[in-house]
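Entry for adenosine monophosphate complex. Fields follow.
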Amino acid sequence: MYVVFLGAPGAGKGTQAAEVAKELKLAHIATGDMFREAQKKGTELALQAKSYMERGILVPDEITIKMVLERISAPDCKNGVIFDGFPRNLAQAQALDKAMVGLSKAIDKVVYIKVSEEELLKRLGGRWICRQCQTPYHEVSSPPKIKGKCDKCGGELYQRSDDIPATIKERLKVFFAQTAPLIDYYSKTGKLLEVAGEGGVDEIRQRILSAIGKKGARRS
Ligand code: AMP
């Protein structure tokens, strides 16, 4: 099963994509995480992506598409993938479709996690992320048990450098201008599933699983 997760920054896409990928035993390709990983390692890719990420704008397609195409030909992607943060514009969506044809596969479903703009701004403002396992927390709505420490792995929590007000605004602008047209693109293929992204993490995960025709284990 090959599923694309669409959603604005702060919609909970990363959290849900990671959970659903684990539950369905699919590979999880998160382009933002791949770029941040490259920054940690200081690779050539990191140098190419850094200035775009800092400004909250998209890394050029030729860099991003090349990175994803290399990743999807890895053995762990054979049984399916959850794409998280990719594609983010029409050119990327078309490149992905073409690559899937080359692999004799196709995108099966597209999950659009919909959250109001007001809620997105609130969420992104107080977001803290675990440096080790990437679990996100929020100062108000989902604080960690111990300040600055991840509940799951004890890792240090940090605020993303692009979660500052001016960059948040730019990232939302980029989403509505460049990524939102994909809602229409995938809706025409009949693959689009819209899921309300407000509520508890587990509740939203159940909504997503049932939208894609899978049953998830209840956790609470
Ligand atoms: P994210 O973690 O998905 O919010 O991504 C963080 C940043 O990485 C974005 O603001 C972009 O600068 C870059 N990025 C992530 N995914 C893509 C993509 N598919 N195309 C271009 N840039 C991307």
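NOTE: The pocket of adenosine monophosphate is lined by residues 9, 31-32, 35, 52-53, 56-59, 64, 85-86, 88, 92, 162, 171 (CB under 6 Å).
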